[in-house]
Amino acid sequence: MASMADYEELKSLYKRDGMEVLLVCHRTLKETRILKRIRKSEAKAGFEKNQLQQEARILPKLTTPAVPVIYDFWEDENTICLIEEYVQGVSLREYFLYHSKLTLMDMMTMIIQICEVICHLHAQNPPILYQDLKPEHLIMRKDQIVLIDYGIARQLEKGERYKESFGSIGYASPEQMDGSLVDERSDLYALGKLAEEMLLYTEGRIPVYISRIVRKALCKDPQGRPESVDNWKQSWEKALAKKQHGIKGSKKGENRIRKEIAVIGNEHGIGTTHVACCLTATLRSCGHTAFYVNRSGKAVLVPVLRQRKEFWEKNGIIYHRKFAGIMDYGPAVIQTMPPDGIRVVDCGCDWQQAKEAELVIYVIGSRPWQDQEVMQEKVKMDSCILLITPANQGVGHRLAKELGEKVYALPLEEDPITPGKTTRQVLKGLLRHAGIV
Questions:
Q1: 355-400: pLDDT as tens digits
Q2: Quick one: pLDDT band at residue 118, thresholds 50, 70, 90?
Q3: Which CB contacts under 8 angstroms, 24+ apart, belong to 257-260?
Q4: Does domain 260-433 have CATH number 3.40.50.300?
Q5: For residue 81, which of 70, 90, 91 has the smallest C-alpha distance?
Q6: What values do phi and psi take at 211, rounded to 5?
Q7: Cβ(38)–Cβ(79) under 8 Å?
Q8: Given 2.120.10.30, 3.30.499.10, 1.10.12.10, 1.10.510.10, which CATH number is that of 90-249?
Q9: How many Å apart are CA 120 and CA 233, to the nearest integer?
């Protein structure tokens, strides 16, 4: 059995309430390690003792480089000692200090790595709850993130939920802080708080689907969070793949990725086509290459072209000042593929037409309560934004409060091909919120 005689003390790193953490060197192997030592005469009510015993029981079960290796554990009359791997690197807290701005891809890659180690804990039999996730406990070791300090981690027996009342303020879940029952979704809440903080250090606009992923984990009621950390991690992996695909498609010599914005109404005649046309004109007025695409099943642009002489057509695309749209001759004619740019797709009421969309604008009338169940389901999508037409601020405020989501209100627009200033301002705000402009 190992003892203090096997180690040379190099440096004290932390000391409080009978607990001391030291940097030590194994005298024979010449390896630097961490020693956590408790002096029984100074420890408070056995809490620190339990912490070390928990780490000694839990860590040897974990087979991943994302957790420290346990080398030795012993107890005598005066002390309890734990020897574990010295993880060289900087904490995520220190990393934030020296890297004031992260790219969105770096942020997503890091949060996926952190999710993976929490998933590894939850996949144990019985599952292990970490319960103390925060930047100080995450060490950046080259390209690997290592999770340290398992002092308040717990094994969750089958069908059991624990009552706890400790954790780190600002990261611990509401149920953990008030002593209620906790389970794996408590760690998920802490992941959400961590991701929320990381976004503060992320450069550029944050797409709405990213903000939605974070908010899902931060629901105060555990039942409202994703069912597991693995489920939440998959949302991040899809978001990262979408971002990587977009960057790859923008390389010189390749076709740029085409963003697709779907506009869908909760009922026929609600103004979906008006919104799609206004949005197309607004994007083009902001300097973006954008095209209206009709998938509503009803011809829109051909009748317009016949009635308004100021329109002109070229290569299957109809133009008018700041508007451009793909001609819709009907199902018997092969439609023109739009050039590189943003496709604003008029889907009518058909959600199947929005499968490839990066952003969905769900258009509802000023009496949305008849469709409340569908609306609540759709607004949970990672990339769905609610828009009321015609504008009704009272309904908008009520909806936003009940759903916990931003709701936009669009005024009546006589000519959607040339939208007015107020309409353009509302749509620009929506697009900024979505990270499009």
A1: 778 889 998 876 666 566 666 666 666 678 888 887 666 776 777 7
A2: very high
A3: 258/338, 258/340, 258/341, 258/342, 258/343, 259/342, 259/343, 259/358, 259/359, 259/436, 260/342, 260/343, 260/345, 260/356, 260/357, 260/358, 260/359
A4: yes
A5: 70
A6: -60, -35
A7: yes
A8: 1.10.510.10
A9: 12
What digits encode the pLDDT tens for the residues 255-280? 344 578 999 988 888 889 899 999 99
Ordered by start, the domain boundaries in the chain are 4-85, 90-249, 260-433
Q: Pull the structure tokens for residue 9.
A: 């003390």
What is the SS3 assignment for 87? coil
Residues whose CB is less than 8 angstroms from the CB of residue 47 and which lie 6 or more positions away in sequence, other chains included: none
Q: Binning pLDDT at 50, 70 and 90, where does residue 195 land?
A: very high
In the chain, the percentage of residues whose pLDDT exceeds 70 is 82
- Determine how β-strand 260-265 pairs with β-strand 342-346: parallel
What is the spatial distance between Cα 65 and Cα 262, in angstroms, rounded to a whole number?
43
Helix, strand or coil, per DSSP, at residue 154: strand
State the average pLDDT over residues 26-34.
Answer: 93
From 51-55, 124-128, 165-169, the region with the lowest mean pLDDT: 165-169
> Which structure tokens are listed for 76?
């005598």
Tokens 């480089």 belong to which residue? 65
Q: 90-249: same fold as 4-85?
A: no
pLDDT at 198 over 60: yes
Cα 346 to Cα 59: distance, rounded to the nearest angstrom: 54
User: Which tokens hold the place of 265?
Assistant: 């109404």
Residue 343, φ and ψ in degrees, nearest 5: -100, 120
What is the C-alpha to C-alpha distance for residues 396 and 409, in angstroms, rounded to an integer? 7
Q: Which CATH class is domain 4-85?
A: alpha beta
Count of beta carbons in the 10 Å neighbourhood of residue 432: 12
